[in-house]
Amino acid sequence: MAEAEVIRIDHGRRAADTQLCRGRTAGGRPCRNRAGASGFCRRHEPAEQPEAHSPSRFEADLERALAFLRRRVTGGYQVDDFGFDPDLTENVLLPILRPLFDRWWRVEQRGLDNIPATGPALLVSNHSGTLPWDALMMKLAVYEGTGRHCRLLAADLPFRLPVVGEIARKSGNTLACAEDSTRLLDAGEIVGVFPEGYKGIGKPFRERYKLQRFGRGGFVEVALRTGAPMIPVSIVGAEEIYPMLYNLKPLARLLGFPYFPVTPTFPALGVLGAVPLPSKWIIEYGEPINTSSFTPDAALDPMFVFNLTDQVREAIQQTLYKNLMSRRSVFF
Amino acid sequence: MPKQRVLITGISRFLGGHLAQRLEQDPDVGEIFGVDLEPPGVELQRTEFVRADIRNPLIVKVLQATEVDTLVHAAVIATPGRAGGRAQMKEINVIGTMQLFAACQKAEKLQKVVMKSTTAVYGSDPTDPSIFPEDVGPSSHPRTGYAKDAWEVENYARSFGRRRPDVDLTILRFANFIGPQIDTPLTRYFSLPVVPTAFGFDPRIQLLHEEDANEILYRATREEHPGTFNASGDGVVYLSQALRMAGKIAIPIATPFMNLISGAIRQTGLVDFSPEQLQFLQWGRVGDVNRLKTQFGYTPRFTTAEALSDFIARSKLAKVFSEEQAEQWEKDLYGFLARLARSRAIPDAVRS
Questions:
Q1: Distance from the Cα of residue A164 to its chain's centroid
Q2: Which of A12, A90, A222, B349 lies 20 to 30 A from A155 at CA?
Q3: Do residues B94 and B153 lie in contact, with contact meaning Cβ atoms separated by under 8 Å?
């Protein structure tokens, strides 16, 4: 590749004692840029001073990994008041999800520009897929796309469970309640919410891509109070990962779960049935719905809140239909 | 202006004793009285010690005879071990406070009541918000142990406040104390050689350094700060993180077995484990300290992490391994693996 060089038209008038860069261009010609103290121009400056052993990439990775381990062993990391542990999330939890994101579901992102680079935003998404893989993928998607962490709001069930609850909290998620979401938005964070809740994630396969009732509109009230923009998020693909044919309600009640899914592979194939199908995913972020133009008192008007809830829901539903049409097949 | 006259309950305890010490240095404070069953644990000069039980009707006479204008109620005890059993502890905490506030009703000179409470009143539950402001109660209040006592005691204080609106009531909800001198269930927990934790759970904990606790109690006594305040250092640490900072080895125990194990530990008398502490080990709790900083006007000098570090450094805990050791391991391991890589023992595919 030829490098874009600035060809100076006044080089003939350059002082004779000006040192030129000792490097060569990609084409093999001597570089004509002015040299710095090292004898090279800024472009051709060697990345590092050559040493007896220049560290290879393996060594650099090793160093990073060991430094991470040392921090974990000595407790030398910081968490916020919600228990979000960025060190663990960025170095362990999100990298584990990356192969699923890149290879398994080949998640495609659209409309990333709609997520603000700074300041609060409430991502409102559809919810599906029996297990909340869509939430995890959205979290990774936002991080990949913007470098910001999306703080998900979850039901209390995950926080009750051992291990799951611990990881959920450490990766920055918290209980879906007005107090926590208000506090996060006031702190300028991106918050992700799934207003359909269990009704959405636990719906049978035949109702795929039909949005359920959007809770009681609590998320709209929070957005109005904090003035955070609401961004409708439509996730296509998660409905097909575990097609739920039947819900074994008595068993669910016995185990204390919101539903007990029967899919073509689960529980017939046992643990293997827990492997999600490799559908093709599209995550689209819609136009932000600006709430700061309303007064915070608007949150006190239930009719207004319902209407705004419907507006968000409709925006997501329309995008879902549009992206379903544009998808070639479930798997590609 | 007449000098402030202060009565402190629970003067034998860390906070009560240090408050008296601090008040003695203050020329604007007149007489100081300390009520407790045991003598003060710290050296005091001009504080008058009254050996009395707050459950005894005698307390009315003490309150009237001393003519105090400020009452600091710091006698609520956190551990059954100290009181001689849970029943006794509840008796002292709840019935004692009830009697004390009944006595206060008639103390006409009384202008200010400062009460030591705890963030344990919020309980520990996965269905509650992550951070508790003072006004928002938990979905359910704790039903056992110290936390339940503290909640009931606060209720007596609040109902007294309603009956005597002329009295300024300050309720201080302290987070877990930590420091080189103070002795609490948590400091004992950290001094165990191997530390039992709840498997699969990692609670967020908030800590208040003992020096900050003394300062806050002193300011609440001397200044006017009516209201309820959470008191803790900034920030949180995870229990696992705290244990690693302390160089301890955690032994995760499945929660169904926790009760069994904690019973055994309680038998040894080393650490008091009660059901609400077990819940704390699963979900922890965090209070919002914004009001302390803005309204009360005090920002603790130690953050949670700093308070813990100070405790670890100054109380000379027996560490299983130290930070320097961990750094040495890191260097050794790096040297070993890097040499291995250079000698081509590790295939190129991994190296690149």
A1: 19
A2: A90
A3: yes
Contact list in A for residue B351 (CB cut-off 8 A) is 56-58
Average pLDDT over residues B189-212: 92
Q: What is B181-227 written as a DSSP string?
A: S---HHHHHHHSSEEEEETT---EE-EEEHHHHHHHHHHHHHS---E
Each residue's pLDDT tens digit, A29-71? 667 666 766 677 666 666 554 445 556 788 888 888 999 999 9
Q: Which residue of A lies nearest to B337 if distances are taken between CA atoms? A: A62
Give the best residue of B122, B140, B201 to mutate against chain A (max A CB count within 10 A).
Answer: B201
Residues near B258 by beta carbon (within 8 Å), at least 6 away in sequence: B196, B198, B278, B281
A187 belongs to a structural domain? yes
Please report whether residue A173 resides in a domain.
yes
Question: Model's pTM, two decimal places?
Answer: 0.85
Q: Could you give the CA distance from residue A198 to residue B306 in angstroms, rounded to a whole number?
A: 41
Domain for residue A132, yes or no? yes
Between chain A and chain B, the number of residue pairs with CB atoms below 8 A apart is 109
Sheet strands (E) in A92-145: 108-110, 121-125
Q: How far apart are the first and last CA of chain B?
A: 79
- Classify residue A207: in a domain, yes or no: yes
Dihedral angle computed from the Cα positions of residues B51, B56, B57 and B58, in that order, rounded to the nearest 10 degrees: -10
* B80–chain A nearest CA distance, Å: 28
The reply to whether residue B131 touches residue A179, judged by beta carbons under 8 angstroms, is yes
